[in-house]
Amino acid sequence: MGWSHNVTVSGRTAASQEGMPPAKPFDLFPTRIWQVSLNRFSSRFAEWLATIEALRAAAPIPAGRTNRGGWNSTDNAVLHQPIFGELHKTIRDYCLQAFNEMGLASPAFELQSWANIHDRGGFNFQHMHEGALLCGTFYLQVPEGSGALVFKDPRPGVHNSYAKGSGANAFKDIQLHPSAGLLVLFPHWFEHFVEPHGNDTPRICIPFNALPP
Ligand SMILES: [Fe+2]
User: Fold this and answer.
1) What is the pLDDT of residue 17?
2) Of 55, 84, 187, 191, whose CB neighbour count within 10 A is largest?
3) What is the pLDDT of residues 132-145, one digit of tens each?
4) For residue 193, how far is its CA from the centre of ligand 1 (angstroms)?
């Protein structure tokens, strides 16, 4: 996955300018997300997965929203359960890192969190997390064939770009292929969707919103 796309000037172009230096590129309006592996908790994954399966068994009607072909919890405080205590604290710490880099210092916030399961064919419609300071997902089970998390290019004007793909100023969508243990943080206004799941073993994650109090 290409997160940065360096602009290089070919030798032929530079030579044709007879010693003139190439124009220096400046990438404006970058969009930052954060990724970190939390595999140091891997010995806990089995009990966390069992907890989520139990949540589903106890309340099998999905909350719905943008999830289709799977189940998501109506419980929006999943990470507040004591069994997720360490994970909750760790995610809060990474939110603070992101807030710091966003120039927000250390705002007061609460984590709203829920469980998300995709059975075979399950997916999420395109959406954004309106009203949050920041949002993200922790991936607990990502079998082969899991759909990508796709971020839509957030620059309205670039949808008219003649150039498509990884070049400078080209229109592009970004596919993120998570694995179990990955924590991803991204801006709440970043539109995204999840491609259909292609395995009989479900894809299971814990999405969250950092909400102002
Ligand atoms: Fe989402």
Assistant:
1) 65
2) 84
3) 999 999 999 999 99
4) 7
Q: Can you give the pLDDT at residue 32?
A: 97
Q: Which domain holds residue 72?
A: 36-211
CA distance 160 to 156: 8
Cα 94 → chain centroid: 14
Distance (angstroms) between ligand 1 centre and the Cα of 212 equals: 18
Q: Which residues contact 148 (CB under 8 A, 6 or more apart)?
A: 175, 176, 177, 194, 195
Q: b/e string for 139-168 if b means 16 or more Cβ within 10 A?
A: bbbbeeebbbbbbebeeeeeeeeeeeeeee
The pLDDT, as a whole number, for residue 70 is 84
Specify the 3-state DSSP secondary structure of 7.
coil
Half-sphere CA count of 143, side-chain side, radius 13 A: 13
Contacts of 160 (CB under 8 A, 6+ apart): none
Hey, which residues does 72 pair with through a beta bridge?
Answer: 116
CA distance 88 to 92: 6
Is residue 27 domain-resident?
Answer: no
Does 1 reside within a domain?
A: no
C-alpha 125 to ligand 1 mean position (Å) = 9
pLDDT of residue 15: 46
Please tell me the total count of domains within the chain. Answer: 1
The pTM assigned to this predicted structure is 0.88
What are the structure tokens assigned to 88, written together? Answer: 């909750």
Quote the ligand 1 centre to 43 CA distance (angstroms).
Answer: 26
Tell me which residues of the chain have a pLDDT lower than 50: 1-15
